[in-house]
Amino acid sequence: MLVLLIGIGSELALVSALLLIIAHAFYKAALFMVVGNIDKATGTRDIRVLRGLSGVLVLSLIVAIVAALSKSGVPPFMGFLSKEYMYKALLETNTYVLILLLVVNALMVSLALSLILKPFLSKAGQSHKQAKR
């Protein structure tokens, strides 16, 4: 997306690219911290075995949800502002690329949300039992 926005070259596209970089840095850092908390509490980062952590790591769940909502572009989070500007910049140039980007973004958001929330919202398993409160 950044290359596309820089390629458009309009002021709105460049502002959008800058906001996208900043928003990405914040929500990605938050998600890495959540993974660190999960690893410290359970002793693993293997998403295939992590289950039922919502009762144990409540603060990590809240941070993961906020970061996921920002990544998804939900208001009032910074991800919304960057994506709003991005869509406006694309609307000024190419409607077909905008439509394609909306579809791809929706698919990426659903995949990201399922991966981010799976360790917390799945039924409790071994990782829940060994997690340190």
UniProtKB/TrEMBL annotation:
Organism domain of life: Bacteria
Topology of the protein relative to the lipid bilayer: Multi-pass membrane protein
Localization of this protein: Endomembrane system; Membrane
GO cellular component: endomembrane system; membrane
Keyword Protein biosynthesis appears in the UniProt entry: no
Transmembrane segments: 12-37, 49-69, 96-117
Keyword presence, Transmembrane: yes
Domain named NADH:quinone oxidoreductase/Mrp antiporter transmembrane: residues: 4-108
Main localization (coarse): membrane
Keyword annotations of the record: Membrane, Transmembrane, Transmembrane helix
Classification via InterPro entries: CPA3_Na-H_Antiporter_A, ND/Mrp_TM
Alphabetical list of PANTHER family matching this protein: NA(+)/H(+) ANTIPORTER SUBUNIT, NA(+)_H(+) ANTIPORTER SUBUNIT A
Protein name (record): Na(+) H(+) antiporter subunit A / Na(+) H(+) antiporter subunit B
